[in-house]
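Lecture notes, continued. The same structure-token format from the folding unit now serves as the input rather than the output. Read the line below as a description of shape only.
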């Protein structure tokens, strides 16, 4: 167990994933190796990036927007007063005369902002603090820095600026156009009023979580347009990479955590000045509290620090175990983690609205509670670990390192991250040994694929995956089902169909190619098609015709339509079959025979060779995709047939043989199919065995509603 050190003076998602709604219980970290014991803090790294040989390539050209911030936190007023020195380079095309800025905190300024109009004061399981409901960011001055002056210091030229009608945006007008390839320095003065903590930011008592707390410039796209969107309920944050140099003036008894490395701490009376530096990141956040307990771990030279309330200090090893598993899996699959630190924070009671959120090198998680003894005694067990920790760390890659536009295509962030979280569990609990179990119910394993499918929406989707965040609305409620779970199921389905090794290699190409860039959905699709081929042969028909998965069609259906994968076994039956009955011509051409046909339906006891088994499979969903059909014949032989999925149904016949049962997708390749209770049918007189597996299959589907809230923005 790591050592714990309190402050100097005293010395999910809310649980986006941490609760498994099927059982109504939280997860422990069983199955992950415990971190090694540490008797002292891990020293602060001297560099924000890992050594070049360990971190992978870091392109200098990706540094576009760098910030130097000097800010003072007024605890009684819960205000941050600061000055930002922004250096921004115009990457083109063409000159720029004005710059858009995000003032995210203004989303909480009034009931008629875009954010509040959608959220109505609610976010996940938290609501506005009635004593301190509002927050804002007041921009007081903007100056361009540069040019000669009489005292030898750079000149400061006041610039015109104005808030947009939607106050989470503002525009700054330059005094002269900035040519392509040139850099401008601006100095902005601001005051941020923190609300009572909810929706990821604010204060609770003396605890403070400062996220999206300073003015941030938008992102200029390759075509010259700007991505600077209003702050809405489901839109997250999108910015360019740069370096951050941040000095915070705070009460001296607060324990501080932040993005990057701590360069120094200086006491000034009852206050402290803390200096942080971060490199090649696109945001900076910080937290502080008087009673936070610190714990440390180290992996591959990366310093890992946790901050927890005193009553949850025993949770640190659980978070570290999950963090280790996630770091090991994601470095192997998506390339080296480039920064030298990771800080994870479990906010105290009263500040749970700050939990479950990612920032570069820094994230907030949720409490790790083990299963109660009674549940374990009844045969319940979980291997999920502190899944919020896994999920929020996963954002260091999606969208911290592969900085996709979360507003235009939120699935590239939340969906790919959710998919990668399941891969962490595969790696931690036995990839290559079949689908590992993540839970046991009365001793029966619930596999990872069961868990992934269970988290799909139990009802048809009303919105497609690939659409901007502001097109989702809480009045429909599909955001979590679509962006997180449906995306993960789409990728897992393709991985199973294409083969794990080929798919993983293509994903690694995507991760390597777009590090420190802003990849789009088109980039991901093109990279997967490049790696897997435009068509994947899944098998052949009885006459040798190839059955293929066309990736362009798969992506179009899965990402840009609401078509559902849904197959059902419509009929398993048998008919009388007498191939010799009736009149036939013999070798001489004469008609012979005349035997009477057998009656329909066949009498009991009819020999198998006078029966024709029949199976009809119905494609009930609109999604066209190849699917396997498995049947068991009366002699115990099992056969599989591959159907290309075109048409509404497929009829299969076995002359001279009875069919006991038929099953669609027997290998569970199509994780996109959430409803599977009708995928198996038995013939008349054939009684399916009552097994825990069948019972849990039903339980999984009827419990899906309980999981509907387990993922969210």
């Amino acid at each position: 167990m790591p050592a714990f050190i309190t402050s100097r003076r005293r010395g999910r998602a809310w649980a986006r994933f941490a609760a498994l709604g099927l059982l109504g219980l939280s997860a422990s970290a069983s199955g992950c190796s415990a971190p090694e014991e540490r008797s002292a803090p891990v020293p602060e790294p001297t560099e924000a990036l890992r050594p070049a040989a360990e971190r992978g390539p870091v392109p200098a050209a990706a540094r576009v927007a760098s910030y130097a911030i000097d800010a003072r936190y007024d605890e009684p007023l819960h205000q941050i007063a600061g000055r930002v020195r922004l250096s921004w380079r115009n990457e083109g095309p063409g000159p720029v005369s004005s710059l858009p800025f995000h003032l995210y905190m203004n989303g909480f300024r009034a009931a008629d902002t875009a954010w509040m109009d959608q959220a109505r004061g609610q976010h996940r399981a938290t609501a506005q603090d009635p004593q301190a409901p509002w927050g804002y960011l007041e921009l007081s001055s903007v100056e361009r820095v540069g040019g000669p002056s009489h005292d030898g210091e750079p000149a400061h030229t006041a610039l015109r600026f104005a808030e947009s009608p939607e106050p989470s945006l503002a525009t700054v007008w330059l005094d002269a156009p900035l040519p392509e390839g040139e850099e401008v320095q601006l100095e902005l003065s601001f005051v941020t009023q923190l609300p009572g903590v909810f929706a990821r930011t604010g204060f609770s008592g003396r605890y403070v979580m400062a996220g999206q707390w300073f003015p941030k410039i938008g992102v200029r796209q390759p075509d010259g347009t700007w991505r600077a969107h209003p702050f809405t309920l489901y839109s997250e944050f999108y910015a360019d990479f740069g370096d951050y140099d941040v000095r915070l003036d705070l009460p001296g008894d607060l324990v501080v955590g932040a993005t990057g490395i701590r360069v120094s701490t200086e006491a000034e009376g009852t206050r402290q000045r803390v200096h942080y530096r971060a490199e090649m990141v696109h945001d900076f956040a910080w937290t502080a509290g008087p009673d936070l307990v610190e714990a440390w771990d180290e992996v591959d030279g990366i310093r890992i620090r946790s901050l927890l309330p005193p009553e949850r200090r025993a949770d640190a090893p659980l978070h570290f175990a999950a963090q280790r598993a996630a770091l090991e899996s994601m470095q192997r699959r998506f390339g080296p983690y480039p920064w030298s630190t990771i800080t994870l924070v479990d906010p105290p009671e009263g500040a749970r609205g700050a939990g479950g959120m990612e920032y570069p090198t820094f994230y907030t998680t949720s409490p790790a509670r083990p299963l109660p003894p009674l549940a374990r005694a009844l045969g319940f067990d979980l291997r999920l670990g502190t899944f919020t920790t896994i999920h929020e760390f996963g954002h260091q890659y999606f969208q911290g390192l592969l900085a996709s536009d979360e507003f235009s295509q939120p699935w590239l962030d939340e969906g790919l991250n959710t998919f990668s979280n399941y891969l962490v569990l595969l790696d931690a609990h036995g990839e290559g040994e079949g689908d590992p179990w993540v839970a046991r119910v009365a001793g029966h394993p619930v596999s990872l694929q069961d868990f992934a499918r269970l988290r799909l929406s139990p009802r048809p989707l009303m919105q497609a995956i690939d659409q901007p965040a502001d097109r989702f609305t809480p009045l429909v409620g599909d955001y979590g089902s679509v962006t997180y779970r449906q995306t993960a199921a789409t990728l897992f389905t393709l991985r199973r169909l294409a083969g794990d090794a080929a798919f993983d290699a293509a994903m690694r190409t995507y991760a390597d190619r777009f590090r420190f860039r802003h990849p789009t959905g088109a980039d991901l699709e093109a990279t997967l098609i490049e790696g897997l081929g435009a068509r994947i042969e899944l098998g052949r028909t009885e006459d040798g015709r190839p059955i293929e998965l066309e990736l362009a069609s798969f992506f179009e259906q899965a990402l840009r339509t609401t078509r559902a994968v849904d197959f059902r076994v419509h009929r398993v039956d048998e008919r009388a079959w007498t191939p010799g009955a009736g009149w036939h011509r013999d070798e001489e051409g004469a008609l012979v025979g005349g035997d009477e046909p057998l009656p329909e339906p066949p009498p009991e006891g009819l020999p198998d060779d006078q029966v024709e088994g029949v199976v009809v499979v119905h494609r009930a969903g609109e999604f066209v995709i190849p699917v396997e059909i498995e049947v068991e014949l009366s002699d115990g032989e099992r056969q599989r047939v591959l159907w290309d999925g075109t048409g509404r149904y497929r009829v299969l016949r076995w002359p001279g043989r009875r069919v006991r049962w038929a099953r669609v997708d027997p290998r569970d390749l199509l994780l996109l199919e959430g409803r599977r209770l009708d995928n198996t049918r038995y013939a008349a007189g054939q009684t399916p065995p009552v097994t825990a597996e069948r019972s849990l299959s039903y339980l999984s589907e009827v419990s899906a509603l309980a999981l509907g809230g387990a993922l969210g923005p």
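Point for the exam: The CA atoms of residues 263 and 275 lie 5 Å apart.
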